[in-house]
Amino acid sequence: MPAVNGTTVTEFILLGFPSHPSIQVVLFLAFMALYSMILIGNVGLMALISSNPCLHTPMYFFLSNLSFVDLCYSSVIVPKMLANFLLESKAISYAGCGLQFYFFCTFADTESFILATMAYDRYVAICNPLLYTVVMSRRVCVLLVVLSYIGGSLSALVHTCFAFRLSFCGPNIINHFFCDLPLLLKLLCSDTSLNELLLYTYGSSVEIISVIVILISYIFIVISVLRLCSAAARRKTFSTCASHLTSVIIYEGTLLFIYSRPSSWYSPNSDKYISVFYTIMIPVLNPLIYSLRNKDVKNALRTAIDTKVLAQ
To answer: Does the pTM exceed 0.90?
Structure first.
């Protein structure tokens, strides 16, 4: 039952996408198909990178971690959303809501840091190719990825602790398909000014810092590429960055739009559909973006298929 004023909230109701039961089944099948694509695409890409020695380079090490993060943050949200399409009860426990938001925020912010790390990797590879193996050593790559996960975890911990230390004593209905911070803040009985300040400053700073690192890296890349005499060399160099740039624009642009606005601009109904894009569609698209435009990945996939066929 929904909580009423003066009653401590013990669970939340995720409205999701309210519609006729027959439409709910259609939505379940559609999102189940998309989630299957996320599992196949990202697990497949990680397995391909792991199994092929030609892909054991810093760029593909970071790409493998990007696929892992995509898989994790979609898996934090989608299974519960799928269950809610079929179940009459749309409830999620207080602790479950807190954990869902914490892990979603962890992996979402980690992805921003990994995208920034990938931009730095491209900068070193293109602008300092002779020093690339020294600068981007295995130890440095592992350190950068570990720091990305630590940064994402700390960001999530700050937001989760500051939100869930306050009192939820009013309505407990969330007009969304997962526990997202802007909508949780609307349900708090306490003063949320500090939480909103954290969201707009500390939360946005994660995306802004990542975008700044990416922009600076690509400014130096463009300057370096324009110095090349051969037009073919310039096209080849830019093509190696195209997949990453596409992923950055889609992901960072959506997150900045959702989380860097004043609370008065939030529109639960429209934002809910935008959230589908970065929680589900981006993990579906990333393996396609990085494989369809990547000769190394396509060659590795072709080799893996040929090896399997010959083995039979």
So the answer is: no
